[in-house]
Amino acid sequence: QVQLVESGGGLVQAGGSLRLSCAASGSIFSPDVMGWYRQAPGKQRELVATITSGGVTNYADSVKGRFTLSRDNAKNTVYLQMNSLKPEDTAVYYCNAYRLSGSIRIGPNYWGQGTQVTVSS
Question: What is the mean pLDDT of the chain?
Fold first, then answer.
């Protein structure tokens, strides 16, 4: 049973910072890709950032230069440092993890329970 345990959400003023963490645990699971997605009220879930086990990152244009995603492979944990937060960053943030075969996802696409990030103006 694989679980993604998230922490670090909360309320912050515009221009402030938050750090989200996500730890993957259970069974023998070493995800090739981990990352974060977010969903604002009335909107579809969207990519924030992903990182491979080799450290290759991919960011949404809206967060480039403000958010940094890092990974501790030994702990199967990712950290999303969010700086210069804007009200439009307000959303529920979901951790995601999966395995790859080549460039193709294999097995389940795992999701965390979500953590609320609210940025006040």
Answer: 95
Antiparallel, parallel or unpaired: β 3-7 and 18-25: antiparallel
- H-helix or E-strand containing 20? strand 18-25
Phi-psi region of 27 (alpha: psi -120 to 50; beta: other; left: phi over 0): left
Give 27-45 pLDDT, tens digit per residue: 667 889 999 999 999 999 9
Sign, Cα dihedral of 27, 28, 33, 36: positive
What gap in Å lies between CA 45 and CA 47, rounded to an integer?
7
Count the neighbouring beta carbons within 10 Å of the beta carbon of residue 10.
13
Question: pLDDT (tens digit, 9 = 90+) per residue, 58-77?
Answer: 999 999 999 999 999 999 99
Tokens 């912050």: give the residue. 12
Cβ atoms of residues 43 and 102 within 8 Å:
no
Tokens at 24, concatenated: 């993957």
Residue 18 in contact with residue 85, Cβ under 8 Å?
A: yes
CA 96 to mean position of chain CA atoms: 6
